[in-house]
Amino acid sequence: MADPTPPPRIPENLLIPVKLDAFIFNAEICNGKEKQAKIAPITQPNYTFLRLDASMAQSDIIDHTDIHNATPPTRNSRLYNIGSRKIRENRLGVYLHWMLPRPYRSSTTATDSRPVGEQAHAAWEKGLKAAPQQQTVPIFPTVPTRWLIIRKLDPRAETTVPNNTAIEPVKAWVVESDRMQHIDDIPLEVDLQVDVSPFITSVLRKPDTDPDGRLDATNMSIDEQAEVFIGYRTDAAAWTEAEVADKPRVDLTVTSSSNQLLADFQYHNCNVFSMLDTLEYDHVDPEAGQTSKRRLEAANVCYYVVGWHGDPGKDILAMAPGEAGEKRRDERIQGLNMGLRPGSLSDENIARWMGSTGGARVLCHGAMYDVEWDNRAGARPKTIPADAFCARMNSDTDPPIAVGSTPMDALLAYAGASHGGAAGGVEGDLWRLQTLLRAQDGGVAAQWAAADEVHSGGFARFDGGARYFFPDSAAAEHANAVRPPTARQAARMRSLNAAQRLLDGIARREKQMRWELFACWWKFIADPDSAGQASRREAYEKEAEKLTTALNVLQLHTAQLARDIAELRDPALSGFGAAPQEGVLPDFAQQRDPTLLIAGVAAGWPRDFQDRLLVRLDSQTCAALGGGEAVDASFGTGCLPPALQRSAALLVAEFLALLPGSPWAEPPAGTFHPLYHDGEKGGGAVPGKDTGWRDRWGSAQPWFPLFVEWEAQYIHIPYEKWALAERDAWRPPPAKTCAFGLDADITTGFAGDVRHISGRNLILPQPKHALTAHIDRLFGTVPASVLKGLVSDTQRQGLHDTLGSLAFLSCPLDGLTQHLTTQYIGTHVKPLVRVPGLGPAVLEEALAAGRKIKLDRARMALIDQESDPTPYGPLPTLAGTAISGFKPVTHGQMRFTKINVIDKFGQVIYAVKPDVREGTPPVFPCAAERHAPQRLPGAGNRPNVADHGRSKDGGRCEFIQLPPSINQPARLNASFVVRADTAAGAEARWLPVTEWQNPIWGWVVANYADRAIQVFLPDGTFYREARITAGARRAAPWLPFPAPRDIEGAGTAQLDRLVQRLAADDQEYLIAFMAMVDAALQEVAPAPAAYAQFASALVGRPLALVNMGWSLELSTRPKTNQSSLASQRQAKSPLGLLEGFGDGVYEFPVRLGDRSRLTDGLVGYFGAASKEDRLADPANELDLSTLYTHFAPAAGPTGPNDPVTAIGTEKHPYPKLRAFWLDPTAERYSSLKEPAFENYVADHNAELKVFGALVDPFLPVTAHTGILPVRTLALPPWTWESALRTMTAFFHVGPIIVTQELPEFNKDFQLKPQYGELSGPFPAAKVGIAGAGKAGGEWIWLQPYGKPNDIPPKEPSKDPIVEDRFMPLEISNAHDRPWLERGPYVAVEGYLQMKKKHTKEDDHKPESAPLAPSSLPHGYSTNV
Fold it and tell me: CB under 8 Å to 54, separation ≥6 — which residues?
């Protein structure tokens, strides 16, 4: 045989690998037995539902796959003509499908951070052509539209039956993927389900009459689309590009069809990305001299596919002639997530090619060797993975179905249920590693953070809006104190943020109203009553008028607000000195639909699909290996453009050189095998020499699960049955979790409403890729000593080796929430089409329908891209029920009645047998913690489910639980607040603090040495002390320090009220307060290392007094029932999210603080004062009579004045929040003047529910709602650093005995208000304290001296009021043992204060010892 053409020394074209699969379809394949896979009848889009007249529009034109008639084969319409009951011979054969590589599946999009111009540039970098006026539409590259398919077989081989026929050893075809045909132009012999593909386009096409080829916004007809097909195949020998150049085409990308299954579902892409080879040949009857068509009964066949772009200008690396770019080829290839094999650039020619900035051509290529076709009676492939996976799905001993919030959550639920106590298996290893899979740090705090992250992962995030900061404060908000702005700057910043918040609210409402306009239009065209009943048409017309008017007004408001914001941001006008920095507000969030996981069923995506795609240049092919035959004209390479023919010939030569049976050889230096000719290990194979190749058929049918179709029964359980409570965690740490559950028995006496819902969800490769990456990162970062405690080295290596082949499928159950909100996800007609470079274009038929309710072109254009999902409209799902099908909040249970997995060739595996005629067999999913029903107390292991007929004893349960979750984005607002200046007689208003405001209104320190509570002002100045004593003692302000001179207006009214209660004569409040603080500080994370430098650390941990506000905000107006059925129009939900949206209003509990979480800083909180009290005295902010805490004593209150009340009890259940939403279209906010957005923010702040709180300043306050992610609220460090610098360590001591007289009071040495640094001078006399030792030099004695006050007593019988003055005295060391000295002895009582603050420099000096216990009275401790 002739040697193949040697590879060129200089590369010319880029080669992209394609995964090619081959599926054998014969009569026996359709004869699936029990627990074997079924072959689905061909299901294609129903064109009838594309029509906009006669109320024919449907929400999904693609029906669910029906396998009830899949067996026996005679009932399967894919195999048999049901009318004639004859086999469709033209459908038997080998089905080939080639998978589009990732570069053709990714896009570039213009965003706020990437404007339109940059988007076009980014598109160019990826080889995507973007019009100069490109809108914010994702741009996908055009896919290769020409495919050369080559078949290679040996007519004389023993495996070929019949042998030695006239079938060609080499046969080649050309597939034109983008060739469009009208149904009238398609010959009758063409099978519309096998030979062409329906095409539901959303891209305008060029009219033949336009010489400029410009797109025409009116050149699209829905009626025409119902009769359009694409895909064409012909023999390569009779095909040239020139002869088909005038054929109509479509611009083909992965998204240019409205059918999301087009690229991968073989039923929908015949002769586009797939082809049927019937192995037909011409048979000449020697006797009759006639030629007839016959087909091989069996053969061993090899296939090869080569793809290229029919239009060179749309090649992924193409550039216009003479055009030079800024990016080199290697940068552009890298931008497409592709790369050459390592070491390739060592070749100078390759390096030069990659460094060029010119354009290039691309060839896609893929092979499949040794496909075993056999159509003889009873013949089936030796291995059919789908059959094994179907049996796995129907396992009675190890149910493979799991449900969780995320793929990882569901996988761990399955591992726990099936392998929680097992010693082996990949799932068992994952279960043992579950704590590290959440957090690689095994510490409790890290596990808490990981648990929060896992919980938050179950939520979808939505833009929360923007906010602005002063230029120097954005980074300083959590670090150093922010320089306070001037009054003018602060006012303008408030106005700027107010305007931005209103603008964000308008944007969200505008987006919602655009969809509501689409919903109005859709319900009108789908409503059968709209044509015959004038009242129905008038209702739609009125709604459309209302929405379009409001949208036009909102656009005016948006423009005005944009101008206001630009002016407020202008440094020259604002006085900011520099433009404000833009930040973001917290996101809105919505609970995602649960994730379905099917264990033990392999995914079809290549294991490296998510990795960088390894490509080659044509000079790197293995054509030089030899051993193959010459590449002649029969291989069809002459069909390619001249610039690609040499590269194609090299690829075909490589294909022949690598045929099975050819001598094995390593590729020559500088060349590489194709990506999928990789010798992947399988069944003990030796890489490169044995079975296991990804480009060899291996006597096995392919298995590529593409999507899941499911049906379920949903039971809505009344909201009052649910309770938010602390529950034992399944997988500690943490030991406790706060979640909704059903604690009351609902198995009897329950009459809830029941819904039947369904969905179709794609199976994507990301979950498995994410798990693999997570495990690899875990093994690379966690110490081996930690890992060995969970899995052995052997198990670790085994997990690493087998993870890539771990079999599981997962997909979100998208559509569940849409059904409950009466919306539908599916493939449907959209009234507008968004075309890159042109913006939205209104379909003519859609416009004609819209005009019937006075929606002209301009009004229809307002819908923009908000046309998905569809409203229920007249869908009969809710027919005959008076119960509202709309659920603003999900709270119920669900059981599956169908789970079908459909692969790309139509193989179906199922969890519920399709031939069951009565009832629905149970499916027992492994439910993760959030979705597992509670067990009935005292009923063994019986699940607490609503359908008591299905509530049985035992560990298995059909139902999964769907705890309460709001069915639209919402946000838990949290901020520290301060009281705004309020006029007399008006109720106090609260304002969230800005980055320059300190929210702390006082400090509390537990002084254990004195058994006292010390109270400090916000700046750290000592204020008052209340001590637990044997008798009543009135706490004097400030002592032992003089009152500060600037105390007037310090705002201590609320602090005074608290101290008044702490200093009450009965001491109940103080004792309970002290006990609560003590209990809280025993269960808290260590303070940060920086705290050790402050003197106050020697006395007790400081706690901050703050006011905090919480509110529950909806991102948009509450959703409403979208069913147009008469019974549903009258139905009303029992509860709504706002007043007027239901018979009642939802109230959602929120748990503030978390005792089981060491990282939570809430000690306790006060409720707000009553409205009457606040009106009487605006400074009376809080109700201090009751202190709610998680640290209440188990014994209960000690007396009537004990303020401590446990949180989450009957006496004090969790506080509840009602959701709110501010309508930006309200007149109060639509004056187009500055007060409008000030009003908006004022009303927003008025929704805050305010609590006074005692918090650890170093730790955040944690809030759990069960309906939203965990929310935390933390003080910036600068708010406490300055106060702690001011605080000093001091405590009361005495009476103690000293052996010398005290000096007389000297006013020159009187203690001053600025007491922080006691550096002297001091009187010469000192106080001798036993045991002071060297430590005495670090402390100072504060001695009181009484002085009668000028204020006479209120009652003559009382003693005169004595005012204490203090003088600091240094301490000298006295004997610490009895010593007979001359008297007189003096009993003194005073305070010890640290003489010098502790600094970082002191960390390097020997520690000072505390004063000896013998020097202090019995019962007092110095362990401070």
Answer: none
Which tokens belong to 470? 């002063």
Q: Whole-model pTM?
A: 0.87
691 φ/ψ angles, rounded to the nearest 5 degrees: -70, 175
DSSP 1152-1176: E--TT-TT--EEEEEEEPPHHHHHH
Contact, 202 vs 250, CB < 8 A? no
What stretches of 854-989 adopt beta strand conformation (E)?
870-871, 889-903, 907-910, 926-927, 960-966, 970-979
The residue that leads in pLDDT, 1069 or 1399, is 1069
Calculate the alpha carbon distances from 935 to 430, 525, 716, 961 in Å: 26, 48, 19, 12
Quick: pLDDT tens for 805-817: 578 898 999 999 9
CB 109 within 8 A of CB 119: yes
Enter the tokens of residue 262.
Answer: 């087009």
What is the rounded CA–CA span in Å between residue 1363 and residue 1346?
6
pLDDT tens digits, one per residue of 1042-1085: 665 554 445 678 888 898 888 888 888 999 999 999 999 888 87
Name every residue whose Cβ is closer than 8 Å to that of residue 308 and which is 6 or more positions away in sequence. Answer: 144, 146, 315, 361, 362, 363, 364, 640, 641, 644
389 and 600 Cβ atoms separated by less than 8 Å = yes
pLDDT at 585 over 50: yes
Neighbours of 750 (CB within 10 A): 16
The residue whose two tokens read 């922010």 is: 482
List, in order, residues 6 or more apart from 1039 with CB less than 8 Å away: 1024, 1025, 1344, 1364, 1366
- Phi, psi for residue 1364 in degrees, rounded to 5: -85, 130
Cβ 1327 vs Cβ 1410: under 8 Å: no
The CA-CA-CA angle for residues 395, 398, 404, to 5°, reads: 110
The Cα 151–Cα 302 span in angstroms is 6
Could you give the CA distance from residue 460 to residue 1006 in angstroms, rounded to a whole number?
Answer: 43
Kindly give, in sequence order, each residue whose CB lies less than 8 Å from that of residue 132, ignoring residues fewer than 6 positions away: 120, 837
Instruction: Tell me which DSSP letter residue 605 carries.
Output: S
Q: At what angle do helices 487-526 and 534-569 cross, to 10 degrees?
A: 160
Could you tell me the two tokens for 77?
């319409």
CB 473 within 8 A of CB 480: no
Tokens of 486: 């001037």
**CA–CA distance, 1018 with 1020 (Å, rounded to integer):** 6
d(CA 975, CA 972): 10
C-alpha neighbours within 13 Å on the C-beta side of residue 1030: 1
